[in-house]
What we know:
The structure is a homodimer.
Chain A: E1 6-13, H1 17-28, H2 30-37, E2 39-47, E3 63-65, H3 69-72, E4 79-82, H4 88-99, E5 103-106, H5 109-126, E6 130-131, H6 142-149, E7 155-161, H7 164-176, H8 180-190, H9 198-201, H10 204-218, E8 228-229, H11 237-245, E9 248-258, E10 263-274, E11 286-293, E12 297-304, H12 308-328, E13 341-342, E14 349-359, H13 364-374, E15 379-383, E16 392-399, E17 402-403, H14 404-415, E18 420-430
Parallel strand pairs in A: 1-2, 1-4, 2-3, 4-5, 5-6, 8-10, 10-13, 10-18
Antiparallel strand pairs in A: 7-9, 7-11, 9-10, 11-12, 14-16, 14-17, 14-18, 15-16
Amino acid sequence: MEKRKKIINVGLIGLGTVGTGVARILLKKRRTILQNTGLDFRLKKVCVRHLKKRRPISLKGIEVTDQPKKLTQDASLQQIIELIGGLGPAERIIREALENDKDVISANKALFAERGVGIYQVSKRTRNYIGLEAAVCGGIPVIQGIKEGLASSRIDQFYGILNGTCNYILSQMSKFKTSYQDALEAAQKKGYAEQDPTLDVNGSDTAHKLAILARLAFKLEIDYKAIHCEGIEGITAEDIQYASEMGYSIKLLAIAKRHSAKSIELRVHPALLDGKHLLANIAGVNNGVLIHGDETGEVLFYGKGAGEKPTASAVVSDMISIALLSQSGIMANEAIYGKAKISKISSVESRYYLRFQCANRSGVMGSLTRSLGRQGISLSSVKQPEVQHAKSAPVVILTHKTREDKLRRALKKIQSSKGIKGKPVILRIEGREDSAV
Amino acid sequence: MEKRKKIINVGLIGLGTVGTGVARILLKKRRTILQNTGLDFRLKKVCVRHLKKRRPISLKGIEVTDQPKKLTQDASLQQIIELIGGLGPAERIIREALENDKDVISANKALFAERGVGIYQVSKRTRNYIGLEAAVCGGIPVIQGIKEGLASSRIDQFYGILNGTCNYILSQMSKFKTSYQDALEAAQKKGYAEQDPTLDVNGSDTAHKLAILARLAFKLEIDYKAIHCEGIEGITAEDIQYASEMGYSIKLLAIAKRHSAKSIELRVHPALLDGKHLLANIAGVNNGVLIHGDETGEVLFYGKGAGEKPTASAVVSDMISIALLSQSGIMANEAIYGKAKISKISSVESRYYLRFQCANRSGVMGSLTRSLGRQGISLSSVKQPEVQHAKSAPVVILTHKTREDKLRRALKKIQSSKGIKGKPVILRIEGREDSAV
């Protein structure tokens, strides 16, 4: 039912891992894509940093340059694919591409999370499309799912495991009972973690992706800096073990909830997730997003969140979607209806896992639970494993739902008391309903 | 970034559960959809069987008729939504709609599985689109995911839990150790199974959906009758229990594998699925499809497979996709590259779970395993639970991979031997690799 063939001339900026993958698909799968979609993508120009570097693919017949403007200013190109990452140059290149009436496909989550507002203003004015499927969850078509599959739903909330590095580290720690440091080193050896893993393990990468998804799901402008973000650096094998004994996995979660039309809750932090929760069984470098829409109910998207092939495949899938949209000329997908009011973490309600190191003498547990009780925090479980001949022992407490500020007040009081050693471990609990109030 | 608004006039045929849901979304969410997509869907005409029946929604301002041709021949309508189900009248209506240059959205899996070939010939000639998202897995955007998300991938295989009724029954049997009959009655009470559940429990419904997905995934014409199909009527609580002890769930699976460009394997049957497999944890009325694409790797789509709201939401999502495609005029998604050669089940390789009822005397087990051995079938596990003072005892055998015809030959021999009581239970095993050859 090929109505007619449509030729799309493409310029690719950045020939790293993903860029090479995209070039490979466009060169090797041109016919498959044409058959599947009716779109004939022609890779015309590639912009690289080092012209003389040897490449693993042949670019015969393609103009290779180190000048981005030779692509952004070329009137014959309809799509620019930005895969250099980072903020400064990428932003300039994308703005220039939009100003020159090109649609842009990018995997640059940091840029769009932190400076997306300004870039979208340009695209709105120039009436061009921006595709970010590859910026979130690699090969999983979650952005497209939200845009079309859930288009008649009001999205109420979503939960995501959005960072493969963190999920791999936590899975390793859980499976082999190893320390954070050992699991991180294993991830680095396998190429699942960078030599400097900071942006992954501190939650920033997850928060970037959360910002992009939340903008799309709630159709509100998101202030990235207002997202509460904690990383996984402080997670210990001990806590994973205690959590597991109670039927929980520890996962780095991105959480988004709609409270009212413009008031939302966005947070990134490790959490104890009920073992029966759909996201609890997502292991290794995989990603998953569980979205609740008022019409569809819960929908889960799962797959490989990173890697050359899945991410490159997402870029190409985005090129297809945007070519179709651009051709139809009727898309309002990027419409935004105001600024999100993001709840302060102090006002967010959650259940908590608390682990204290308590001196092994009478009265400590009593004073601890009293301090929690005075803030109206009720406990759903208390556990003190038997420790012999030790001066202190761990006490693990699960609370019922409470506001974060109440917990913080109680903890301040508890930490100043004599029987408590060091800093307590504080983790939120998700996915299991309170059994009592 | 609303480029311009596009009005789509819609005619809806069939106002049952899903039809009512679609009408409700189109009437109540018209503005949401317009904001999200730039498309303004206007429900102009509804065709029902009984004009005087009271309806749960107000159709004020909408022309209601009992004559389908008042819709299919109305030049002002761009989309016809067929939700009456069944073969005869539905096929005539859809053909007439296509002949009158309308795009068609349908949830009619039986019709498209059994007679899709002829209808697609019409749509190819008239250059119209057919949307079947709602025919497979309700609210889960799996068809769209294959069409666009995996458009640059060659799909190698997919596994699906496509029937909520069967999955509910098997989940109940597993959770509460009840019989098939009790679980079926529970499903009927909850409205998850029809009073006549035949098409669900015998696997036909799953095979219909498999045919539709396979056509799309492999781009080959599928002969529905060539799909090997077994239902769940013979599953017992006993087999679920034995499977569970070995770490398996029993699920009704749709399985599709590509062997070469035109040679594929399609089958529907209950199977022991490794408990760690992603589909093993899909419980209750939920559906899931796990697709392996050469670029994306494994991608799982999960969600509610039926019900008014998810299915109606899928219809509307399809209306959106098709309106965009129709507008762009460049879609080749429905291109088909020949007829599929579907493997005979006798030539398919699988691991097997076998349960025999053996007379409690010496030599029976030996003759049984010898018969399997003579066909080159090697065993990975043999188990005979201790039974006291009984004349016969169950023997559970798991085999390594073997061709179905070899197994059938061995079973014929075994059943004719004296020590075996009744018919053996034969189930395939999926999701766990052979540990030996």
